[in-house]
Amino acid sequence: MDTSDSGLDEPGDEQQTKRLELGTLPETIGEADLEKLNLALGFLFSRLREARAQFEQKGDNGRLGACNALGALWQFITLFRAPYAQSLQVPILRLQDALASLEQNRVEPIVQPVQRTGRAPSSDAYGSLKGQAVATVELLVRMGLNPRDARRTVATELTKLGVRPERGSGTVTATTLRNWRDEISSDVGRHTAGAVNYDLAIAPAELATFGNMPKNQARSRALGLLAHWIKSVLPELQKPT
To answer: Partners of 238 in the beta sheet?
Structure first.
């Protein structure tokens, strides 16, 4: 896995005049720094888009894309004066190195599995899935379905997509969705990934978009967004065909 590209040069005729130097941007951006900040953001998002494509297409379970996304992030941090001086990029760089080392069959301590007893906590990835699914139930209820039918509809969609329950065997059921709803509702401080993702999915702007659609179209869109989210963000949760 080649993750050695650490330069920030822009290709083309403007490469020399628009070179970004380490530690030159302040944390508080003023008008004089806007052009350089926009250039830096352009580099960041361009590399993240490349990493996203690699994540989906490379055939290595997303490792190269994840490595290059981490690389884009830590390189962006080094452009800022104080963060660079404080080496704030180091944890991200070490994680990138650890992922790359797996390709040489070396397991760095940072990615070494930890042996624990008892029930393992839910991962943030699966927690986000819970939030997305419960938000989809909420959207369907707002479109006229009763809560029980909405939960059944979403559970059927999750099963169709091959999503397994968090623990154990079987399929996700309407009862599973109700338990997820209770779990998210109990997070009053909105600290978990599930609660955060739920809030994002039913933000006022999202509700307004659905509110302007015919009900049948809105229901189809809600389920389509759920399916797209699972396929693009959590493909590993799907059963192999």
So the answer is: 163
pLDDT at residue 142, rounded to an integer? 92
Contact indicator for 12, 51 with CB cutoff of 8 Å: no
Model confidence at 241, pLDDT cuts 50, 70, 90, reads: very low
Which stretches of the chain are DSSP H helices? 34-57, 63-77, 81-85, 90-102, 124-142, 147-160, 174-185, 193-201, 204-211, 215-233
What rounded mean pLDDT belongs to the chain? 84
Confidence of residue 225 (pLDDT cuts 50, 70, 90): very high
Inter-helix orientation angle 204-211/124-142, to 10°: 40
Q: Which residues contact 65 (CB under 8 A, 6 or more apart)?
A: 51, 52, 53, 54, 55, 56, 58
Tell me if residue 238 falls in helix, strand or coil.
strand
- Rg of the chain, C-alpha, whole Å: 22
Percent pLDDT > 90 in the chain is 54
CB atoms within 10 A of CB 110: 12
* 3 state DSSP class of 141: helix
Domain extents in the chain = 31-111, 124-237
**CA dihedral over 222, 224, 226, 229, signed as positive or negative:** negative
As a whole number of angstroms, the distance between CA 219 and CA 89 comes to 43
Percentage above 70 pLDDT, the chain: 85
Asked if 168 contacts 101 with a C-beta cutoff of 8 angstroms, the reply is no
